[in-house]
Design brief:
Structural class: alpha+beta
Radius of gyration: 16 Å
Number of strands: 10
Largest sheet: 10 strands, mixed
Distance between the termini: 29 Å
Length: about 190
């Protein structure tokens, strides 16, 4: 599998796993990339490819702390405390940790137990929100990941604005809101209408 295909598959697995977790009213945090962290639990599970064992990935995600995945798609830590830069008013520690980890090329997936929503952050910005309670939202995961790939670095707005004002995005699929610049959103709309 090529690196791009593997990354796309990893995003699908993270979102699908996040949907399962969110539907049960539980939360989790996935970070793909480099981040400062401290393990909160003994790391007894050896590194493994996240796309080859989604059930184990889900089990580890349910522990307190984040699941850290390296650039090659290997789960290298779980139950990890991410060094947060600052607290965010009206949001918990998971969101603060996720926002702190969403720097550089990192991909962050926050699963909110209260909202039952999944927030995808990349390059320091929220680029997608998925409502786990939307009927049949699982059918839209592949399309959502394709849209995620199309948006890439073209997102605009600060994380805080995106989190507090999700209405600034556009819903292309039921239960999925995309955030991005008018240029990239325009390109996506054009492709969807063709």
């Amino acid at each position: 599998m090529k690196k791009d295909e593997e990354l796309k598959r990893l995003k699908e697995i993270l979102i699908q796993t996040g949907l399962k977790i969110a539907k049960r009213g539980e939360g989790a945090l996935f970070v793909v990339g480099k981040v400062e962290y401290k393990p909160l639990v003994n790391q007894t599970v050896p590194p493994f490819k996240a796309i080859t064992n989604p059930k184990l990935l889900e089990s580890l995600a349910l522990m307190d702390g984040a699941v850290i995945i390296n650039e090659k798609g290997y789960v290298i830590a779980y139950g990890a405390m991410i060094k947060s830069r600052k607290a965010i008013k009206n949001f918990g520690t998971r969101h603060s940790a996720g926002l702190s980890a969403a720097k550089g090329n990192n991909l962050v997936v926050i699963i909110s137990e209260e909202e039952r929503k999944i927030k995808v952050l990349q390059k320091g910005k929220m680029i997608m929100q998925i409502d786990a309670l939307q009927k049949n939202v699982e059918k839209n995961v592949s399309g959502a990941v394709k849209a995620l790939e199309s948006i890439g670095a073209g997102t605009v707005g600060t994380i805080g604005t995106s989190l507090l004002l999700p209405s600034l995005g556009i819903a292309f699929f039921p239960g999925v809101i995309l955030f991005g610049s008018a240029y990239y959103l325009g390109k996506l709309i054009s492709k969807k209408l063709e």
